Amino acid sequence: MFTRGGERTQGMFRHRQAFHSAMRVYLTAPLFSALAGGKDPPRGRKPSRWSTRNLIFQGMLMIFEESRNLNDRFLGARKSLVAMFPGDRRPGKSYSGFVKAARRLGPQAMEVIKTHFREPHRRVAGRHSKRFGWAAFAADGSRVEVPRTACNQEAFGCAGRDKTGPQLALTTLYHLGTGLPWDWRIDAGTEAERSHLRAMLATLPDGALIVADAGFTGYDLLKGILEGGRAFLIRVGANVSLLTKLLRVDVQQEGDTAWQWPQDKRNLSPLKLRLIRLPRKSGSPQEAMYLLTNVFDRPRMSEEIAASLYEMRWGVEVFYRAFKRTLDQHKLRSDAPEQAKWERHWAMMAFLLRGLMTVEGIIARGRDPLSMSVAAALRIVRQALREPQRRWRHRGDLWFLLGQARKDEYVRKRSKKARDWPHKKTESPPGVPKIRPATWNESLKAQRVYAAA
């Protein structure tokens, strides 16, 4: 039992203040200084009610609010923000003023913020930064609807079926070690996932492995990954054509070596790749899974490791489900294009911040960060924000509670799959890639291309 003196010694922290202290572990002064450009306001002019720090805190706190109305979210988040900084000048009272102030961050502000988050991401990950010896990242994209206003329609267009509204495309690099986003790109729904991935390649650590589904094939993308010094493990299907026995040289590995050399790229060097075939239980070629990689070191990328890494790719699908449904981000609420993009950025930042707190708590308790429960962690964060009068006895209680936010570990006796789901997608598998031996003329042309390179 704690005495009053003991409580004073240990420290009594209110929920909001504990959450505030946790946020400041990851959102530090150098970030706010970099976003502000290191400039002080002109002499004689009062500083804005929305400092750079308050803008970042407010934007993420709004995501944790449960209200569906933007203005109500703003008011609830502002109340928490004021409680976190009781001695500071109070921020503005209107959502429109917050939106206007956020414009001064500029288009490059989000890149600065994402770069800042990568250092604590590396620190928190620790030994979990690699799986099966690889710093592996899953790439995938998803779309989300935005309000059907005239300006949103003009800016984003329609990327879905007929008579659907405007959409935003979100492509994410998901770290397989921690189950958290590493980088993301947001654009109109008509933008291609491959373009987004190519833009994010430079943010990956050297030697990283990209794991992706059949939507990320393509000569230009794979060539860009190779030139950047990264590895890949990508599923291929009937939309990909491969050649075998293209270069008849003694050092060529037979059996699983394939070459990608599209007809419109015959003036460029063919890509030498390794084809991994993972049979299914039925043993039918149509049921097999085909993976392409540039890793020819079999001990480092055995069939078993390839199968395990590609199975872990499903985590990015679960991430999107949690992000869009658990965090209630399946449809945006902003009526203007610029605000819609920032709303999506705030949500990704909030998801990453909450995730870093939770993963740090889980690892501190000796558990795997992939056991994290997004729903349980979100309940703890929301409790911290809406119950300011309750007190915690220890400074580390927030991380203690978040460390317990893990998925159920019991073994299910039956499938969790719903009996009937009329709107469920029934997409057919990618199929079998088109594989054929190279002709004599193709081999000669390939040798000339290599000689000229």
Descriptive report:
By secondary structure, the protein is an alpha/beta fold. The chain has 2 domains: 12-108 and 332-403, no CATH class; 132-318, no CATH class. It is built from 16 helices and 12 strands. The protein has helices at 4-10, 15-26, 29-36, 52-64, 70-84, 95-102, 109-125, 150-156, 193-200, 219-227, 303-312, 314-326, 337-364, 374-386, 397-403, 440-452, and strands at residues 13-14, 136-145, 167-175, 180-188, 209-212, 231-236, 241-244, 257-260, 271-278, 289-293, 391-392, 434-437. The chain has an 8-stranded mixed beta sheet, sandwiched between helices. Helix 4 packs across helix 5 (70-84), helix 4 (52-64) crosses helix 13 (337-364) and helix 13 packs across helix 15. The longest helix has 28 residues, at 337-364. The protein is globular and about 80 Å long. Mean pLDDT is 87; it is low at 1-13 and 249-254.
